[in-house]
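Worked Example 4.2. Consider the chain below.
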Amino acid sequence: PDGKLLYICTRNFVYQFDTDAEDLLSSQVVVKQLGDEVCEFSLPFPEDFGIMQRGPDNKIYISSLQQCTNLHRINHPNVRGPECDVEYRAIITPTYHDGTVPTYNTLRLGPLDGSAADTLGIDNHPVARFWYEPDTIDQSTIQFYDVSYYRPESWLWTFGDGQSSSERHPSHVYFEDGVYEVCLTVANENSENTSCQTLHIGTVSTEDPGFDPKVNIFPNPVEDYTRIVINGYLPNDARLNVYDVQGRKVASHPIQGIEDVVYLGALTVGTYIYTLVDGQTEISTGKILKI
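Applying the procedure from the previous section yields the following structure tokens:
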């Protein structure tokens, strides 16, 4: 996303190159290699890497070359080496796809000032946007990502606890649970713009009128694996509990971070009730249909 690293995949490998290196080819690093994994639909053929596409969250998504129900993902594509974290089968899709990836529009690229294409004389006035996710090991460390557009040149973050940063993609440690307003201000020579989001960290804020976490479970109906995504809340000790219609707990899975894959293939066909809890506090509840 920042243009400094280049990714190329073959059927079994994902390679990373440093575009600032004097010899581009000599900077090659293998950041992921497939073994003998197979896609359930294309047995007995092995699963291979397919098309790559940068998403609106600045992560890179990789399709499978065969007809499968998953996408792979490079979680930190601006990081040099294997720490870029190529996550195998990161996304489970509800239907089969064959070597394709979703596309999204790039209509917000804006004018390129001074270029031959800049015929309208429109200045770039930056628009601030960002997203965040907790560290998978230390939940108190939050990684923030700038996804602003219209050519921002400077960044100023305030984290709601008196601390700030001028980095583009900073990480920040919160030492206490609570409600924090995080703001990002981006600017260039034309203007500046600010965007703010409220972070609910831990269970102390569930009675706050603004506390409204969104929990998505997909695919649902689920056959074997499903994925849970939490928006608007950063849990410390989340767990997904599943109950049958008699109220008996039939499954319980710890949830790492704000998104995780859950295996429910051992359940029999039917309707179940789930509760997402953080410690002893219930965050969300709903239905899961097992097919």
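The longest strand covers residues 86-98. The CA atoms of residues 269 and 290 lie 5 Å apart. Compare this with Example 4.1 before moving on.
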